[in-house]
Design brief:
- There is one protein chain.
- With about 160 residues, the chain is mostly beta strands.
- It is about 0% helix and about 40% strand.
- It has no helices and eight strands.
- Strands 1, 2, 3, 4, 5, 6, 7 and 8 form an eight-stranded antiparallel beta sheet that branches.
- This is Dirigent protein.
């Protein structure tokens, strides 16, 4: 039996006309735990109460600045969720939209990011890499890697979020 394409579907040749451009940013993402003196920039949505925080779900709106100082210029927000994803060890799956909010040419553009954050035996996040899996605006069709380096951990979780 021959199959035909439905009326709502069309296919054709695709020409890659994108111009590839590399963007290198050196930015600082700030996570303030729920209950921090400033009120925090994340909220526990599901407290699974399981070992290694497995199944724990946290919504976040982390700030991203152009320097490590608290008063450095705000350039973006990392909005999304992180989920406790490790049963044998504490590990977090991150899914964020990095929305640029400063007055540069990137304002309103978004990078979509997906990755994991592992924790050491003391419950402190370790360095890692996260995948850039797309974007909008200046970052349409983006792909690449975010290299995450822990600069300062002022609030080790020690099992608390």
């Amino acid at each position: 039996m021959a199959t035909t394409n439905p009326s709502y579907y069309r296919s054709g040749g695709c020409h890659d006309i994108r111009q590839h451009e590399e963007h290198l940013f050196h930015l600082y993402m700030n996570q303030h735990l729920e209950g921090s003196p400033d009120g925090g920039n994340q909220k526990v949505v599901v407290n699974s109460r399981l070992p290694m925080l497995f199944g724990f779900v946290v919504a976040n709106d982390w700030t991203i600045r152009d320097g490590p100082a608290p008063k450095a210029n705000l350039v973006a927000h990392a909005r999304g969720v992180h989920i406790g994803a490790g049963k044998a060890d504490e590990s977090w799956l991150l899914c964020h939209s990095i929305l640029f909010t400063d007055t540069s040419r990137f304002k309103g553009s978004i990078l979509k990011m997906l990755g994991n954050f592992a924790m050491d035996t003391n419950g402190v996040a370790t360095d890692g890499e996260w995948a850039i899996i797309g974007g909008t605006g200046e970052f349409a069709y983006a792909n690449g890697v975010v290299t995450a380096k822990i600069v300062e951990n002022m609030h080790p979780t020690n099992g608390r979020i």
